Amino acid sequence: MAQFQLIFLLIFMASHSESAQARLKLMWKTFSCVSNPDYISSFKCFILETDKSLITTEVMYIKDIAKYNATFKLLMPRRPSKPFQKVIDVNVDICEFARGNSGHRFMTFVLKAFGKQVSQLKCPHPKGLYSYPKINIGESLPAFMPENDFKIEMNFLTPETHVFNTSLTGFLYDPLKKKAKIV
Ligand SMILES: *[C@@H]1O[C@H](CO)[C@@H](O)[C@H](O)[C@H]1NC(C)=O
Ligand SMILES: *[C@@H]1O[C@H](CO)[C@@H](O)[C@H](O)[C@H]1NC(C)=O
User: Fold this and answer.
1) Mean pLDDT across 142-162
2) CA-based torsion, 134, 168, 28, 140: positive or negative
3) pLDDT at position 142 over 60
4) Which one, of 87, 45, 80, 43, lies nearest residue 62 by Cα?
5) Which residue stretches of 17-164 are H helix?
6) Which among 68, 93, 161 is the best mutation to test ligand 2's pocket, defined by most ligand atoms within 8 Å of the CB?
7) For 40, which of 34, 35, 64, 142 could close a Cys bridge (C-beta 3.0–4.6 Å)?
8) Single pTM value for the model
C-alpha cells in the first residue's frame, strides 16, 4: 500500500534530516474544534498569540470514556495552489497505543507533540478537565514536508460516536527567505 510506504518514508526522513527540519518554521493560521455535548461541556482551542507555532487545548469531559480512538489526517496540495490531498490518514486505538501496541508508528511522532501530557491519553479516560498547553506539533512533523500550506484534522471517537474534532491549518516557511509571508 502506497500509504504505508509513505509513512515509513516519513519516519525514515524524520530521523535522518534533522537539519532540514530545523531550517523550516511552522506557523498556524487557524485552529478550530467541535465537541459532542454529551461528552464535553466546554473546551478551548487556540493558537498562542506570542508564538504561532504553538497551540493550546483544554477540554472538560463530563463522561468517562472506556475506550477511544484518534484519527489523524494530514492534507497538503501536491503543488502550490493545487487542491489539498490526503497524505496521511490513520486511525489509532488509543488504549492499544498507550500500552505500546500501535500499528502506526507515525502516531508516535504526533503524540510526542503532546509532551508530558501524553500520559493523559491513557485508557480508561475518566471525566474531568484535560489541559494540553503549548503543543508543539512542528517539532514532530516529518522533515520531508515542503514549504507549503497544510491542514491537519485530528478527531477523537469512541466505538459509538465522535467526541472531539479538531482542525488546524498552517504553513511551513523558511525564516531566511520568506519573511514577507509572515506579515
Ligand atoms: C466529527 O467529524 C465526524 C467525521 O467527519 C462527523 O461525523 C461528526 O459529526 C463530527 N463530530 C462533531 C461533534 O461535530
Ligand atoms: C480503532 O482503531 C482500530 C485500529 O486501527 C480499528 O481496528 C478500529 O476499527 C477503530 N475503531 C473505531 C471506532 O474507529
Assistant:
1) 87
2) positive
3) yes
4) 43
5) 18-23, 94-98, 106-112
6) 93
7) 35
8) 0.81
Give the position, in ligand 2's atom list, of the atom nearest the Cα of 90.
5
Distance CA 105, CA 166 (A): 21
> Domains in the chain and their CATH numbers?
2-173 (2.60.40)
Q: Residue 129 to residues 43, 52, 110, 149: CA-CA distances in angstroms?
A: 9, 24, 21, 32
SS3 content of the chain, % helix, strand, coil (to 5): 25, 40, 35
Query: Is the CB–ligand 1 distance for residue 22 below 6 Å?
Result: no
- Distance between CA atoms of 131 and 44, rounded to whole angstroms? 9
Pairing of the two strands 84-93 and 40-47: unpaired
**Calpha distance 9→14 (Å, rounded):** 8
C-alpha cell at 148: 507549503
Kindly state if the Cβ of 36 falls inside 6 Å of ligand 1.
Answer: yes
CA separation for the pair 132, 57 (Å, rounded): 5
Query: HSE-up of 99 (CA within 13 Å, CB side)?
Result: 7
